Predict the 3D structure of the following.
Amino acid sequence: MGIEKNKHTGYTIISKNAGSLHRKQVINIENNNLYRKIAERKQYQNNVLLSGIEGRYIGEKLFLSGSDIIWTSEESAGISEYVNHIADFPGDLRETGVLSLGDGRIFCEVIGNEPVMVICGGGHVSVPIIRLAKILGFYTIVLEDRPLFAEHAKNAGADEVICESFETALDRIEGTPDTYFVIVTRGHQYDTACLKLAVQKKNAYVGMMGSKKRVGFVKTQLISEGISSKLLDQVHMPIGLSIGADTPEEIAVSVMAEVIQVKNTANKSGGYTKEMLLYLTGGKGGSLRKVLATIIAKKGSGPRKAGTKMLVMEDGTFVGSVGGGSAEAKITKECLQILRRKKAAQQVFTVDMTGKEAQEDGMVCGGTMEVLLEEIE
């Protein structure tokens, strides 16, 4: 354990921890803290986990956060060599997927964070947006300066409600690459104040409700105050997809549809849920042996994207899902075979959903899926 400079890149290695994944091919959570590092990751950074899955890289792991190497397995020479030669490290590592490098393959997993929606305004449109955002898995923060409407937002299920001026409330919001700002206030002066601050924070999305005339007025005013037109051009305004929405509920659907479209365009993994990390770090599950199943690639149609995870315990319980149905049942069976010591502790398992047998099993997606299986004690 220590701090040192990588002689090739100059980037800081925050911690290195022993645990020979290459030899044992089992991640022992008592002897290393990889998943604790993932659980404690800085949400405003680009967080990437590189895992060797084939050839010379098999069993190696390296976790990056921003410009820092946070954790490596003891034997990670191959992946470290690859990182050393990335032209714009870590900026080149922005998408989840498999990298084929010579005689080996590496799974590059860009780890997303819990999506946070900051809703500026607690009026009649805000309430259905809050409810839909909660259903879709967003942590919701509502900013509203009127106590009565702040109470409405709380009753709608918002995780946090800040009842202060919009400027003061937004000063409390740091912003991350997974923060979505939705501006639905009661007047253009409040829109202007919110938009001015929101576009200057890290974000995944900024959208503002209003007519084209109102939007144009706000944009012109902010440019005159020195806000970059390039930043403002990235704002979704008027907010929402054009579906002819009329009622507050329909407007909420159009807003959330646009947010989902933006969120899913970014190829990030959201597989590490809070519950799963509790098991991976030893907070739950005790001494149960486990296998972590991660989709690393798919061809054709498939139920879930790369980075989706399921954790299978030796008692047959599991956390998460890799798509359900017969495909998930096959993956679960393979995980249990590993736990019974009948299969290698790390392997890439392929599920074929194209053949006659797959059709008979009800796997109608019509594609193939590669899944990385790793035993964790």
